[in-house]
Design goal:
Layout lengths: L1 E4 L17 E2 L10 E7 L14 E2 L5 E9 L7 H12 L18 E4 L23 E5 L2 E5 L23 E2 L24 E3 L23 E3 L8
Parallel strand pairs: 1-5, 6-8, 6-9, 10-11
Antiparallel strand pairs: 2-4, 3-5, 7-8
């Protein structure tokens, strides 16, 4: 029997191994708020990874594997810089792109990706320079994808005009973002004229000081989920 001790992370189901029958360890990765899972060890207080997900396990003995984590935090770049970066990724041949003046028509969706399938360059980095874990973004067939190992990356304190003038965007996936440090959401979705629905149910607005023009010019917006949870005190 192989038992997984996730040390406070999400639970992983044990596995049964029969004698002389090799099996692969679970591919599941435990999640733990504020940390990134790196692998397993068979020492209760071990810090060196001995087993990785899906490794072949050959021993004929019961084993408890203990999760190893790294402190995980990632923060998106400021709203202006993020906006310019994704517009530049979608328009590589356009010079002097501006967050406030460039009306992008190529980006139709912004989604989180579970994998990073290429070797990124500095042009793909959309996190702050001091972010412990990077956040990468890339453009593919109308979609801006972003990826980070961190489960809940922080939105920047200055998230103003982050998605400004993305006139063909119809969906934005912000369900895993942590907004607890954000103070400025001014014009965050301003002029996203084709966006129909927004799910903001996970937004923590307790530190936000301005929302001026946050939804201005969203002429097709019919549904905003989570507004009733906003702290506007």
């Amino acid at each position: 029997e192989i038992t997984y001790n996730t040390k406070g992370g999400s639970s992983i189901q044990r596995q049964i191994k029969y004698e002389n029958v090799n099996i692969n360890l679970t591919q599941e990765r435990p999640t733990k708020t504020g940390y990134v899972f790196t692998g397993w060890t068979d020492e209760q207080n071990g810090t060196t990874v001995k087993y990785s997900p899906n490794d072949l396990y050959t021993l004929n003995s019961n084993k408890t594997l203990y999760a190893i984590y790294r402190y995980g935090e990632a923060t998106f770049d400021g709203g202006y810089s993020f906006n310019v970066a994704i517009k530049q990724l979608a328009n590589p041949n356009v010079q002097n792109i501006s967050a406030t003046e460039t009306d992008d028509t190529n980006i139709t969706s912004i989604q989180r990706s579970n994998t990073l399938t290429f070797i990124p360059t500095q042009d793909n980095v959309v996190s702050t320079s001091d972010s412990p874990f990077p956040i990468y973004a890339w453009f593919d067939n109308g979609v801006i994808y972003y990826y980070t190992e961190v489960e809940h990356p922080y939105l920047n304190e200055q998230a103003n005009i982050m998605f400004y003038k993305l006139s063909n965007v119809t969906s934005i996936d912000i369900s895993t973002l942590d907004t607890s440090k954000t103070t400025n959401m001014r014009s965050m979705f301003n002029s996203d004229s084709n966006l129909i629905s927004l799910n903001l149910s996970n937004f923590d607005t307790s530190k936000v000081q301005t929302m001026q023009g946050m939804f201005y010019g969203m002429s097709k917006l019919t549904n905003i989920i989570g507004i009733n949870n906003f702290d506007t005190s």
